[in-house]
Amino acid sequence: MSTDTQVKHPGAAPFQPEDDGKTHINVYSKGATSLGRALSNLSECNIEHPYFGHFRTLEGLWFYMKTNFKEDSLRIIKGLAARELGKKLPSQHYPLFSKMFKLGMLEKLDRNPQLQRELLENDLPFAHYYVYGKKVMFQDRHQWQLDFWVLLRSTLRNTGSLTVIREELLESIKHHLDNQNQEDAKNGPGAEQS
User: Fold this and answer.
1) What CATH number has the domain bearing residue 166?
2) If DSSP codes are grouped into helix, strand and coil, which group holds residue 67?
3) Number of neighbouring beta carbons within 10 Å of residue 69
4) How far is CA 108 from CA 23, 58, 66, 169, 191, in A?
5) 22 vs 6, 26, 68, 131, CA distance in Å?
6) CA dihedral 6, 144, 146, 140 (to 10 degrees)
7) CA distance 27 to 82
8) Are 85 and 73 in contact (CB under 8 A)?
9) Is 21 exposed, middle or buried (0-12, 13-18, 19+ CB in 10 A)?
């Protein structure tokens, strides 16, 4: 049975770490499954982002965007090192963050046939939590990433391709950038919209 819709863990009964790989997949660098570890932002993926170029990990892409595109070393350092460096740098809001990051996620999956096979062979829902001894910390603020992995799985399963998702993301990004360029031409770069 396919479960191509993502179900958030119920507040009263969250997923249990001992059930990782049985009732769910924990997308976590220390998760119990190879799929969960591979989907983690910390895992090596060597993507070519269409707007920002090469990144060794999605974590590097995350902090590159979050810190206003100023630290090029985030492109090549390992995931945990990217997180540690990124957290030390000042962050700045980037309106296209989630769309650009989703594009990175898509590139990661598109470049990795083994990851595609693992994703398609698994119907379990995704969760994201950290385990520190007996302490479990759910990361619900990253639900949008889990939902996007489900969308990518469903799209691959139904069409055999990620082209439609890529085209939709690129068109949405282009539309935003075109509107921003029009505003900049009208009001000057960085001017507040009225």
Assistant:
1) 1.10.357.40
2) coil
3) 12
4) 25, 8, 19, 15, 35
5) 16, 10, 40, 17
6) -90
7) 18
8) yes
9) middle
Cα separation, 79 vs 159, in Å, equals 31
How many domains is the chain built from? 1
The string of pLDDT tens digits covering residues 87-146 is 999 999 999 999 999 999 999 999 999 999 999 999 999 999 999 998 999 988 999 999
pLDDT tens per residue across span 1-40: 344 444 444 443 479 999 999 999 999 999 999 999 999 9
**Over 70: is that where the pLDDT of 190 sits?**
no
Nearest CA-CA partner of 79 in 58, 96, 48, 103: 58
Give, in degrees to the nearest 5, the angle at Cα 90 between 84 and 96: 95
Q: What is the span of the domain harbouring residue 116?
A: 23-187
Q: What is the dihedral sign for C-alpha 109, 114, 120, 122?
A: negative
Q: What angle do the packed helices 163-187 and 143-159 form, to 10 degrees?
A: 130
How far is it, in rounded angstroms, from Cα 190 to Cα 173? Answer: 18
Assess if residue 12 is contained within a domain.
no
